[in-house]
Amino acid sequence: MENTMTTRLSRAEHLEAVAWGLILAAITSLPYLLGYLATPPDRYFLGFVLNPGDQNTYFMWMNQAASGDILLRNLYTSIEHGGAMFNLFFLLGGALARLVGSLDLAYQTLRILAVLLLSWSLWLFVATFAGERRQRRWLFLLCILGAGLGWAWNVGRWFTGDYGGIVTDTDILQRPFDLWVPEGYVFYSILVMPHFTAAIALLLLTVRWAALGMRDDRIGLTIGAGIMCAALSFVHPYDVLVALALSGSVAGLHSLRQWRLDLTVWRHPLLLAAISAGPILYNYWILHANPGMAAWLIQNKSVSPSPLSYLVGYGLLLLGAIAFLV
To answer: What CA–CA distances, in Å, run from 2 to 5, 6, 254?
Structure first.
C-alpha cells in the first residue's frame, strides 16, 4: 500500500493536542459549574445536563461498581438475574467514586480525563493522514466542532417562537440528528457523555494502528489495534462494528484496485476481527441470555428517525466522503 501516512509526531504537537484538550475540558465544564453554583440550597444538582434516563443508568452502574461489583446488573427490572455486564468505563468510575467518596466527582473527573484522551487521539489520528501541522490543526478543529445543519433548524425555531413546552420522544425523533445523538458528534459527546468520549478515542486509536499495520504489514500494530478494539467493546460495543467495517472496506478496495485477493493485506482485518470477536460475542450473549440484560435491551429499542433527519445531520459529511472516495 502507498506510503502516505505519518507514524511519528514531535513533542510540540503532542503538547498542543493536550493543550486543546485542556481548553475543551474547561469550556465543556461551564454548564456543570453553572448547575452546581445555581442550584438552590434545598435542591441537588445531579451532575449531568442531558437525558436523565440514560445518565441515571450510568450512575446506577457506577454505584454497583463502587460497592465492589464487577459484573453489573439492570436495576430497572423486577426480573431476577445475576450480574453480567462488564464495562471498563463504569468499573473505573465506580473505583474512582469509592476512592474520592462521590459519584458526582468521579463522573466529572472521568469526563475531563476522557476529553484529554480524545483530544490527543484525535490529533494523532488526523496527523496520520495530513502532512502539515497547520493542516492538522484545521482538521482537528473541524472534527471537534463539525456537525450537521441542525443549527439552521434551531434558527428557524427562534423566528417562529417554537421554544418551551414538554418535548416527547416522538418530537425528538423529528429533529435533526445532530441535535439529539451525542455519539455521532465529537463536541456533543465531550459535553454530555464521557463514555462516548472515551469510546471515540479508542475507536480512533484502533483505526490508526490498524491502518498503519496494514500499510507496513506490521502484525504488532494490528495486534495493538485489536487490543484497543477489544477494550472498546467493553466501553461502547457498537463502535467496534465501525472499526471492523472500515478495516474490511480498505482491504476490499485495495483488492479491487489490484484486481486480486492480497492475503498480505487481508490478514490484518481478519486478525483485528479475531482479537475483538470474543468481547463482541460476550456482549451479544449477555444481552440475549441474561434475563435482566435482555429486559434492558427491550427497554432501549426505539423507532428510527425519518430519512430527512439523517440528511440534515450528516448530509454534508456524506457528500464530502463520497467525493473523497470518487
So the answer is: 8, 12, 10
CA proximity to 106, closest of 153, 51, 166, 61: 61
Q: Could you give phi then psi for residue 72, rounded to 5 degrees?
A: -95, 155
Closest CA to 316 of 144, 178, 174: 178
Rounded to an integer, the average pLDDT of 196-202 is: 96
Contacts of 84 (CB under 8 A, 6+ apart): 71, 72, 73, 286, 290, 292, 293
Q: Express each pLDDT in 87-115 by its tens digit.
A: 999 999 999 999 999 999 999 999 999 99
44 CB-side CA count, 13 A? 2
SS3 (DSSP) at 72: strand
Distance, in Å, from the CA atom of 84 to the CA atom of 36, rounded to the nearest integer, reads 34
DSSP H or E run through 210? helix 194-216
